[in-house]
Amino acid sequence: MSTAIRIGLVSISDRASDGTYEDQGIPALREWLGRALVSPWEDVARLIPDERPLIEQTLVELADHEGCSLILTTGGTGPSPRDVTPEATLAVGHKEMPGFGEEMRRISLNFVPTAILSRQVAVIRGSCLIVNLPGQPKSIRETLEGVRAGDGSVRHVGIFAAIPYCVDLIGGPYMETDETVIKAFRPKSAVRPGRP
Ligand SMILES: Nc1ncnc2c1ncn2[C@@H]1O[C@H](COP(=O)(O)OP(=O)(O)OP(=O)(O)O)[C@@H](O)[C@H]1O
Ligand SMILES: Nc1nc2c(c(=O)[nH]1)N[C@H]1C(S)=C(S)[C@@H](COP(=O)(O)O)O[C@H]1N2
């Protein structure tokens, strides 16, 4: 039995956190991970406003004290004055992982021309990978799972395909996925015997 990975889910929204509307970020993240992951996992969820010190403090708490190997944030990546998630993420990161942001913007352009307005980044802090997703709840599935053709075949692979191997490389638990949702890619040498 493999160790359950702890995944931080951080919804960053002024209006969801003050009750103006119901938060759909954390439910959407849970729903997608529930379909995508076949190995054990548990989440540590936080709903917070777009306040840079609070975002930094939350990311540090989840990475350093809650034992999260992966944190997914949603919201606050756009150009508005209150959108500061990328700045907070970069401030707590030890190493930037630019490929995630680049690839998410490419994937998202298949859905909306305003994809280029998302300044999303990803970083490694210690043994935790932190990835920003946009705030629109539907963008969670779009970026993690990618683009499908009308017949369900994959046209553009989602960024989650690269996350299990990245977590391996930083010392986290071995994550396995349901390949009908997202196929995790690992080099052959990194695939554990008896596992996909
Ligand atoms: N947590 C959320 N729950 C439900 N819908 C959301 C959430 N976050 C964002 N949205 C929707 O996605 C849109 C774009 O997200 P964005 O992060 O830019 O929010 P915003 O316009 O800065 O406002 P806020 O921070 O108050 O959610 C929002 O205007 C809202 O319609
Ligand atoms: N996949 C996907 N990416 C997306 C979107 C979307 O609907 N789907 N919305 C875009 C829009 S309209 C904005 S303003 C930016 C920033 O969103 P955020 O401030 O909610 O993080 O994400 C962009 N990326």
TrEMBL record:
<keyword id="KW-0547">Nucleotide-binding</keyword>
<dbReference type="InterPro" id="IPR036425">
    <property type="entry name" value="MoaB/Mog-like_dom_sf"/>
</dbReference>
<keyword id="KW-0808">Transferase</keyword>
<dbReference type="InterPro" id="IPR001453">
    <property type="entry name" value="MoaB/Mog_dom"/>
</dbReference>
<comment type="similarity">
    <text>Belongs to the MoaB/Mog family.</text>
</comment>
<dbReference type="Pfam" id="PF00994">
    <property type="entry name" value="MoCF_biosynth"/>
</dbReference>
<dbReference type="InterPro" id="IPR008284">
    <property type="entry name" value="MoCF_biosynth_CS"/>
</dbReference>
<feature type="domain" description="MoaB/Mog">
    <location>
        <begin position="8"/>
        <end position="155"/>
    </location>
</feature>
<comment type="pathway">
    <text>Cofactor biosynthesis; molybdopterin biosynthesis.</text>
</comment>
<dbReference type="GO" id="GO:0005524">
    <property type="term" value="F:ATP binding"/>
</dbReference>
<keyword id="KW-0548">Nucleotidyltransferase</keyword>
<dbReference type="GO" id="GO:0061598">
    <property type="term" value="F:molybdopterin adenylyltransferase activity"/>
</dbReference>
<comment type="function">
    <text>Catalyzes the adenylation of molybdopterin as part of the biosynthesis of the molybdenum-cofactor.</text>
</comment>
<dbReference type="InterPro" id="IPR051920">
    <property type="entry name" value="MPT_Adenylyltrnsfr/MoaC-Rel"/>
</dbReference>
<dbReference type="GO" id="GO:0006777">
    <property type="term" value="P:Mo-molybdopterin cofactor biosynthetic process"/>
</dbReference>
<protein>
    <recommendedName>
        <fullName>Molybdopterin adenylyltransferase</fullName>
        <ecNumber>2.7.7.75</ecNumber>
    </recommendedName>
</protein>
<keyword id="KW-0501">Molybdenum cofactor biosynthesis</keyword>
<keyword id="KW-0067">ATP-binding</keyword>
